Amino acid sequence: MAKKLMKGCEAIGEAAIHAGCKLFFGYPITPQNEIPEYMSHRLPQVGGTFVQAESEVAASNMLYGASGSGERVLTSSSSPGISLMMEAVSYLAGSELPVVIVNIMRAGPGLGGILPSQSDYFQATKGGGHGDYRLLVLAPWSVQEAADLVQDAFDLADFYRNPVMVLGDGLIGQMMEPVEFGAERVPCKLLAPKTWAATGCDGSRPTNIVNSLFLDPEVLEQHNIKLKAKYDRMVRDEVRFAEYFTDEPYDLLLVAYGTVARVCSTAIEDLREQGVKAGLIRPVSLFPFPYAAVRAAAAKAKAVLVVELSSGQMIEDVQLALRGAKPVYFKGRQGGMLISPDEVAESIREVLAGKAAEVVNG
Amino acid sequence: MAETVVFSRPQALAAVQTHYCPGCTHGVIHRMVAEVIDELGLRARTVGIAPVGCSVLAYNYFAMDFHEASHGRAPAVATGIKRARPDLIVFTYQGDGDLASIGMAEIVHCANRGEKVTVVFVNNAIYGMTGGQMAPTTMPGQVATTCPLGRDVEQAGHPIRVVEMISTLRTPAFVARASVHTPLYAVNAKEMLRRAFRYQKDGTCFSLVEVLSTCPTNWGMPPAEATRWLEKTMMPYYPLGVFKTPERGDRAPRPLAPEEAVCRTM
Ligand SMILES: Cc1ncc(C[n+]2csc(CCOP(=O)(O)OP(=O)(O)O)c2C)c(N)n1
Ligand code: SF4
Q: Is A216 part of a structural domain of the chain?
């Protein structure tokens, strides 16, 4: 299929349809309104259904019902709306229901602002809802990658019977880039039929109950152990990352995800021409985080610089990866302010010149 | 000699004992829902949604596929199921805390979209499961653990009449209130449930049946007294009857009763 110029939000919607998603439930919020708008006209064309829910609380519970019925289903929102979905996310994880949730992050806390941010990293990767659960979290840095990851997200959700979040920032949603959709999609996982779905029971099998309630603590503990084993399999099999400028020697390793990583790669490229050597590692899966890869890449550098559109959230995973092996520095912008390649280049120079303050915990 | 079965457990009901207290009408309502599903031949394509409340384990008591929803969200879950699989018969079973308090937004919008699902709304004027706290449906002066001196309408407002409120919406088309505190009323309640499920079977409309129910345990009275209290205290405030039907023309809401109209202008 030929390449098409598409807005990130539209590409995300089209990708879901390519992955066989027939249902979308959502509630308007900037900066991702183009996703529900796109789905509201595209889904009926492919025999699907779009419902504008009364709230994100309702939308996420509609997801629960549709997923429990065995169908592929998508919702999208932005930070305040995602907060409202956290109850359902916990229930989805507890009931082992596959859904795909797109979060086009905007700046917080509270109503915050509508401009791009990465300040929901903790919420996405460390919990957000209650209970011992994990989301698979994927972070694209281009419109094409957003489209690819959304399609993979459906397969991964079905494979693990777990919610998958695609975590983008406002830039991913709003920018236009060429995108290509493969004609014949092959799932990235071998998928079993959804024999667990509540589709009506004629007596030819035991009844299927979609449920996260286990009043007997011994039974609930066994359920938790089963879930943990699943999260461990994700950690083993689903780590995704990309490295740039790491074939040549480098003094400083940058760690950044999403569109910020693109800004970093531009900065590194500019500096390379001036003889300043930095490399970049970009986590694509935020859960599972590429701890081993970050550690290995950092081993070849003198120090590590983490760049985020937040006050520093992913940096905690980088520190976990490094276990104190290298000094860690941080550059961030917040509140919807973007970071420029020049600013990143400036930070790189400062760190290498010993003028930046190391991030020390405690 | 050939046996004639005159009474047996409905197929749609599982062969298990429920955990409901003696004299609780949840069990009767379960049974009637199951009988209606059997009589309409819907069991194999029915999916139910249990609430959070005393009937949280309903998925163990009905012999059919089920979802367990979070507190109040059953109508949203029902929407997701029905939109995903329109051929299924989908019903929620919800208490008054679940539906009329935490889940008020979900029920109103599910009704207003006209989702082709059936809602069985069990109003026992109290939070049963959590130990007898005040519900939005608790009667004025009724004692509950969070209103030990009785519901004070100056502080908590008047009890919410769900059926009347849903009836003000244009879209939903079968809205009724029934009671099960005596066999005669129960026969009528079953008829309301039958109609509600039949409308869904015919693909007609959203249907909601409110069923007045007893909670002897948290009302603090023996079962027989509880049924009398229901009749004496709840029924005058929660009148029984069919409030809306799909056949009734433009689906305009009923005019307010004079007493209510006075309230409005004060
Ligand atoms: C989000 C959330 N808040 C509170 C609760 C606690 N809770 C469980 S049941 C219930 C009230 C149920 O009352 P009702 O819906 O009237 O049903 P009944 O038990 O009387 O049948 C509450 C508040 C919960 N489970 N989840
Ligand atoms: S507490 Fe009340 S509602 Fe709950 S089972 Fe007992 S009598 Fe029924």
A: no
Can you tell me the distance from the alpha carbon of B249 to that of B55, in angstroms, rounded to the nearest whole number? 36
Q: Which domain holds residue A163?
A: 4-197+225-237
Is B85's CB within 8 Å of A69's CB? yes
Same domain, A255 and A335: yes
How is residue B234 annotated by DSSP? I
Residues in contact with ligand 1 by the CB-under-6-Å rule are B 52-55, 71, 95-98, 124, 126-130, 135
Q: Collect the ranges in chain B with pLDDT lower than 70.
A: 1, 248-266
Q: Under a CB-based contact definition with an 8 Å cutoff, are residues B79 and A65 in contact? A: yes
Residue A361 has what pLDDT? 78
Q: What share of chain A is helix, strand, coil (3-state, %, to 5)?
A: 40, 20, 40
Asked if residue A48 lies in contact with residue B67, where contact means CB atoms within 8 angstroms, the answer is no
ipTM: 0.96
Nearest to B14 by CA among A195, A219, A210, A209: A209
Looking at the structure of chain B, the number of domains it has is 1
In 3D space, the residue among A168, A113, A164, A162 whose CA is nearest the CA of residue A140 turns out to be A168
What CATH number does the domain containing B83 carry?
Answer: 3.40.50.970
Tens digits of per-residue pLDDT, B155-175?
Answer: 999 999 999 999 999 999 899
Residue ranges for chain A with pLDDT beneath 50: none
- Ligand with minimal distance to B120 CA: 1
CA separation, residue A359 to residues A312, B156, B159 (Å): 10, 52, 57
